[in-house]
Write a structure and sequence with these properties.
The structure holds 2 protein chains of 2 kinds.
Chain A lengths: L1 E10 L2 E11 L4 E5 L6 H9 L4 E10 L2 E2 L5 H7 L1 E4 L6 E5 H15 L7 H14 L10 E2 L5 H15 L3 E5 L7 H14 L5 E6 L12 E6 L2 E6 L2 H9 L2 H12 L1
Parallel strand pairs in A: 3-10, 3-11, 6-9, 9-10
Antiparallel strand pairs in A: 1-2, 1-4, 4-5, 7-8, 11-12
Helix pairs in contact in A: 2-3, 5-6
Chain B lengths: L2 H16 L6 H15 L16 H4 L4 E2 L10 H4 L10 E6 L2 E8 L8 E4 H7 L17 H8 L5 E5 L9 E7 L6 E3 L2 E6 L4 E10 L6 E10 L4 E9 L5 E10 L4 E8 L4 E10 L5 E10 L4 E10 L5 E10 L4 E10 L6 E11 L5 E10 L4 E10 L3 H8 L5 H17 L5 H14 L9
The chains are: A alpha/beta, B alpha/beta.
């Protein structure tokens, strides 16, 4: 579904990604772990087309399409979704307006009819129930006055509403208590099926107890230096990142 | 002939037209104002208060005071599109500053309440207004003198003690130049008695594309314990000039809310002044200015804390596009007696284009020692992170920008109490900036 080939990217002129290769197939969950500053969030922003991040080389194919040629909104309409680490507050715009606008833009792109107000409302009720969200949330302004946990939950709610093919979770576990973490993970697990795929970006192994990855990759200084199964996450939790860093240095030296 | 000579000559024509009414208290004030006008020069950029606003384009043309022109007729159908609707209100319509009885609709009023035209009250009950007109507002400059010299018609609202006027008063000022360049000179007065309440929506609009000049004075007297809301929405045509001075005087425990929403006009100048002339008063100034093309919008506010224990709060926000230019000057004086004053002021502007500019200047003069005052001014652009967030959900860039403009204007819009008015102003924001509108339901 997603094929990342030797992607390189700069932020403010500084090289952050130094050649990333990654293949994600439908039905898979990949986790990217790594210490702060390794380039995890950069990868998420590059894949969603944030203009503050400059791609200097490489290629990304999304279901055969050249992803990097598309603007942010078109990527979203093609099915790319990023659950933000820091979701933005939009006063004056209700969640309902926001979601209805987004959903109908996506439907329009796909050649589907706009949802009737009744259909939209039913969909909202159905998805809100999954996350145990209070329905009054829908008339509130986007993320305004939400706690950190509520914002993250709202990201997952948006995911359920927009039904993307490929979901990037950028540090979704940060700032969540155990209960919120469970709710968010449940949302993801319910949504997960053989047709969609996930890239879970996280600093800690904690989230991966709830969202089980098929593959774990370690990102360090802009490169994936180790890949493995979910046991790799446990190993990282136990030993930290230092042993891989040492291994990396040794490999470089030989 | 210079502008001034032109206005002096027109004054004689105007005086001849007055006939029987030339002996009124107001005519003495007019003559005095005309004398002041002969002495005063119109402001230039050398004048500190007009440093960033060049009025010479206004003075290059001779606008004929509306009293010396033929006032055009409109039908109810024609004015419909200019009105705010979906809420119950008294409606007064002024065409080029002159009251139109046929177009207005004033419902039954409580005893003693006057909602009507200055011209009529001058004829019938001048004693009701002689204590206020030109007493609250002094002549600060030649524009004020010009308005006062020709003061003949405008809105008059008098709410006696103890009466809360339930319905808001919507006043449509429709201005237009048909065959000649018109100078519209409304002279407004709002008097709220003790323990009274009144809400006025001043809706300025232009008909047609021809240039005209609106030069307005609005005097507001808020007696003890009164609540006065004055919401100005200015949507004059894009070629017109618009200058207004609002002067409020607040007595003990009164509350004055002024809303100032600017859409139209080529050169716009608002002076919004409040004298806090009693303890425990509260004053709120909310401003929203949107400009594009070559529009120039200048807002000068002045809050005079003359008595102790008063609170003033000011929030002015602007969205400037294309080559438009904004000016904000917010003056607060806290006099020596005005201990325990709370005064807050904020001005925030978003520039949507590289060539839009804003000059913003807070001016705090504090002579008392036990006060809380703060002010702040920011100038910025639409937040790129927020735009990215919205677009990442599939929303196109232009619409994402519209959403962020709505978000920026929100804390001003939210303060408007009449829900349908809020929605219609919202609609006007996008309409004016030619952006895609968001259906907010």
């Amino acid at each position: 579904m997603l094929s990342i080939k030797n992607i390189q990217a700069n932020v403010e002129g500084k090289e952050i990604l130094k050649g990333i290769n990654l293949e994600v197939k439908a039905g898979e969950v990949h986790a990217i772990m790594g210490p702060n500053g390794s380039g995890k969030s950069t990868l998420a922003n590059v894949l969603t087309g944030n203009k503050s991040y400059e791609v200097t080389g490489g290629e990304v194919l999304f279901d055969g399409k050249n992803l990097l040629e598309l603007d942010t909104e078109t990527r979203a309409r093609e099915g790319m979704f990023l659950a933000f680490q820091y979701p933005v507050e939009i006063p004056g715009i209700s969640n309902a307006t926001f979601l209805k606008t987004a959903l109908n833009e996506i439907r329009k792109y796909k050649g589907e009819a706009e949802l009737t107000p009744k259909q939209f409302l039913e969909k909202i009720k159905e998805k809100a129930k999954i996350l145990g969200l209070d329905e009054t949330l829908i008339s509130r302004y986007v993320n305004v006055g939400f706690s950190g946990g509520e914002k993250k939950r709202n990201e997952i709610f948006q995911m359920l509403m927009l039904e993307p093919k490929f979901v990037l979770l950028d540090e979704t576990d940060s700032g969540l208590d155990i209960d919120a973490l469970r709710i968010v993970s449940d949302g993801v697990n319910i949504y997960k099926n053989g047709k969609n795929a996930f890239l879970v970006i996280t600093h800690y192994q904690r989230l991966l107890n709830y969202i089980q990855p098929d593959f774990v990759h370690v990102l360090y200084k802009g490169r994936i230096i180790k890949s493995g199964g979910k046991e790799l996450a446990l190993e990282l939790e136990e030993k930290g990142y230092d042993w891989i860093k040492t291994e990396e240095v040794e490999t470089e030296n030989t | 002939m210079t502008g001034k000579e032109f206005y002096i000559e027109n004054f004689n024509t105007f005086q001849k037209k007055l006939n029987g009414q030339s002996k009124s208290f107001l005519n003495e004030i007019r003559k005095e104002a005309m004398n002041r006008l002969t002495e005063l020069d119109f402001p230039t950029n050398r004048n500190e208060e007009w440093k960033y606003t060049n009025v010479s384009p206004i003075l290059k043309q001779n606008f004929i005071p509306a009293v010396n022109t033929t006032i055009p007729k409109f039908t109810k159908e024609e004015i419909k599109k200019f009105l705010f609707n979906d809420f119950d209100c008294h409606l007064l319509v002024f065409v080029n500053g002159f009251f139109s009885e046929e177009l207005s609709k004033i419902s039954l009023l409580p005893k003693g309440v006057i909602v009507g035209s200055l011209k009529k009250i001058l004829k019938e009950n001048p004693e009701l207004i002689s204590g206020y007109v030109s007493k609250i507002s002094k002549i600060d400059n030649a524009f004020n003198a010009l308005n006062t010299a020709y003061a003949l018609d405008g809105l008059v609202v008098i709410v006696p003690d103890g009466i809360a006027l339930e319905k808001p008063i919507q006043v449509l000022y429709l201005n237009t130049s048909e065959n000649e360049l018109v100078l519209s000179l409304p002279r407004n007065l709002i008097v709220a008695g003790k323990n009274s309440q009144v809400s006025v929506i001043a809706n300025y609009n232009g008909y047609g594309e021809k240039v005209y000049f609106s030069n307005i004075i609005t005097e507001v007297f808020a007696d003890e314990n009164s609540i006065v809301d004055l919401c100005k929405v200015q949507n004059e045509n894009e070629n017109s000039y618009h200058i207004e001075k609002v002067q409020a005087q607040q007595k003990k425990n009164s509350l004055f809310n002024h809303y100032n929403v600017t859409f139209g006009g080529a050169i716009v100048r608002n002076d919004i002044n409040s004298l806090l002339d009693g303890e425990n008063t509260e004053t709120h100034y909310y401003g929203l200015y949107m400009a594009n093309g070559k529009q120039h919008v200048d807002n000068h506010t002045f809050i005079d804390h003359a008595k102790p224990n008063c609170m003033s709060n000011e929030l002015y926000k602007g969205i400037l596009d294309d080559n438009s230019r904004g000016v904000f000057n917010g003056k607060i004086i806290v006099r020596q007696d005005a201990q325990k004053t709370n005064a807050y002021q904020q001005n925030k502007t978003i520039l949507l284009s590289k060539s839009a500019t804003i000059d913003t200047k807070p001016q705090l003069e504090i002579f008392a020692d036990d006060v809380k005052c703060s002010h702040g001014a920011t100038v910025g652009h639409l937040d790129e992170t927020s735009e990215f967030y919205i677009r990442s959900r599939g929303v196109p860039q232009e619409l994402a920008k519209s959403m962020l403009i709505r978000a920026f204007a929100n804390d001003v819009i939210e303060t408007i109490k009449i829900e349908p008015l809020k929605e219609q102003i919202n609609h006007m924001i996008f309409d004016h900036l030619h952006r895609i509108e968001i259906e907010n339901k």
